[in-house]
Structures are given as structure tokens and as C-alpha cells.
Amino acid sequence: MPRTVTVLTAVVLTLGCAARALVVDAVAAPLERIEFEGAILRGAVIPGERIQGYLARPEGAGPFPAVVGLHGCGGMLDTTKRKLTDDFVGWGYVVLLVDSFATRGIDHACTGKVPDISGKRRADAFGALAFLAGQPFVDPQRVAAVGFSQGGWISLLVADEISFELFVRPANLGFRAVVAVYPPCMAVGGGPVMPALILIGALDEWTPAADCSDKIEAWGTEGPPIELVVYPGVHHSFYYPELQPGRKVFGYWVEYNEAAATDATRRMRDFLNRHLN
Known about the structure:
The protein has 277 residues and is an alpha/beta fold. It is 29% helix and 22% strand.
């Protein structure tokens, strides 16, 4: 299928009842703190690291499709953690939010001082996939990765064919689709071998939207569809309600944008419905 690049030239959203109807009402799904083993490199003899996560699921026996949530370089903000849980569970998905920093004692990984952060976090993502595949209420063939900023980078990396070869994956498990919200596209190598959705702001200083456009062009038109949505007038971290008003973080402007966040939620829901159901 041809890849598609969608650039929004305008975002016109009604922020009253009509816009709120795009988002499933919060269901206050309980989050269970769990631990799982990260994936190990092929040929390695040591076990994977123990990683913390937060698991929530819809009511019923399943098996349900599932989402692995990957936080940014500063960790998953509490309000966003709650929103993602309520949204995904409300849409009928099991959700596992991976905390790559807690058990490693990492405060943040925003300044490049954590060695091999991409290798560590890719192992976490595949370990989360294996953990979900072992749950009777999860359909292991219908799991997506959804990441934000650095986590978006990881979601694109686990969609790369090279990652499939690096790690031991029980029964050759793989993700079905990935969503990357304001990822650093310049740091991604090969293109995804599965459908991908990229959501980013046109004014993003930290992870420029132009890098994603250039990367998709370099990947060419062969392969699974890639949808790129660029929001005019929108900055990095537009999905995080905590970031209002906006502020400088590590020298970059970050700011919540309700219109973009609402539209991104709708697009994420529609994308997951198309590829996991």
C-alpha cells in the first residue's frame, strides 16, 4: 500500500460538547502496578532487566487487543497516565504503561547522559509485548505501541525490521501498528514495517516536524502506510495537560494545546480501531 503524508493546514475544532464527544468519558479503570522482564538480545546469556509498569484492562474475559504505552524522556506525567488509561480501556483495549526509569533509578533521560537509552527502552517494549502475550485476556496478535517524544522514537524503532532481529521474541511476536506523538524522527533509521501514525506540532523546537517529513520522503513510497499529521501553531508536548501555561524545559518551549490534543486522541482511536480490530 502507498504511504500517505497528511499535513493539516488548519485545525478547526469545536471545543464544546461536539469536541468532548470525540473523547470517551473517563472510566477510572484501576491501574495495577506490575513487573515484567525486558527482552534480551539474541545470543545473550543474562536475563532481561526487571521493569515496572502499570496495567489496566476492560471488564470481561477477552481476549482484547492491547496497547503498550511508552513515556517521554521525563517519564509519564500523572495526568497523562490517567487520561491514556481511561481512553484506551474505554475504547476496549488492555493498556500496559511501561515505566522505563523507575527500577533503573533514572530521573530523566533528556540530556543524552543515559547510556544506550534506545537499546534499553526497545528491550522494555518487547518485554512488555511478551508479558501481554502471556495474559489470557490479551490477543497477542493485536498489540500496538504508542509513544510520546522519546517514547515515540522507541515506538518507531520497534517497528523497524532491524529491531525484530536484535531481540529474543517468543513465537516471533511483533507489534501490529505504532503511534508516535512528537517523536525525534531524525534519530530513526529504517522505515516502519507496519502501519504508523505520527502526530507532531509545526512549531516543535525539540523534535522538528520537518525531520519527520524528510524521513518519510527518504523512506520512499513502498511499504505499509505512514500517516503524518502536523498541527499548525502547536509546540512540543501538546498532549500533556500539565503543561499549561507553556514553559521552557531544557531550553525548548513545551505547551499543551487542547485542540491538537483532542484531534490527536480522535485520530489515535480511529487508527487503532482500523489496525487492531
